[in-house]
Amino acid sequence: MNVNKVKKAINGNDQAFLEVIHAHKIDLYKTALSYLKNQDQAIEAIQEVTFRAYKSIHELREPNYVKTWLI
């Protein structure tokens, strides 16, 4: 993931935020599915994570660790 893209997302760029989420959607899904063992619940969990991340992306201190922060 491009660190500059993450920095733009942190600074409020909605398009950059969507690109960050898109880049990590498979990993988010696999993680949610491994915990929840249910496809519908995993998708719902990803929606919740996306919403919470959008509200608090400005709190991310180290752009290099955006994937870890999301998961």
Describe, in plain words, how this protein is organized in 3D.
The chain is mostly helical and 71 residues long. The mean pLDDT is 97. The protein contains four helices and no strands. It has a single domain, classed as Orthogonal Bundle (Rna Polymerase Sigma Factor, Chain: A), CATH 1.10.1740.
Q: What is this entry, summarized?
A:
The chain is about 75% helix and about 0% strand.
Q: Any descriptors?
A:
Rna Polymerase Sigma Factor, Chain: A, 0% strand, 71 residues, 4 helices, mainly alpha
* CATH C-level name: Mainly Alpha
Query: What portion of the residues fall into strands of 2 or more residues?
Result: under 5%
Number of domains: 1
From the spread of the alpha carbons, the general shape counts as: elongated
Could you please say which CATH topology applies here?
Rna Polymerase Sigma Factor, Chain: A
- How far apart are the termini? 15 Å
In DSSP terms (H or I, runs of 4 or more residues), the helix count works out at 4
Order of helices and strands: HHHH
CATH architecture: Orthogonal Bundle
Overall pLDDT confidence: 97
Rg from C-alpha positions? 12 Å
| Low-confidence regions | none
Task: Quickly give the structural class.
Answer: mainly alpha
Biggest sheet layout? none
List the helices and strands and how they pair.
Elements lengths: L2 H8 L3 H23 L2 H18 L9 H5 L1
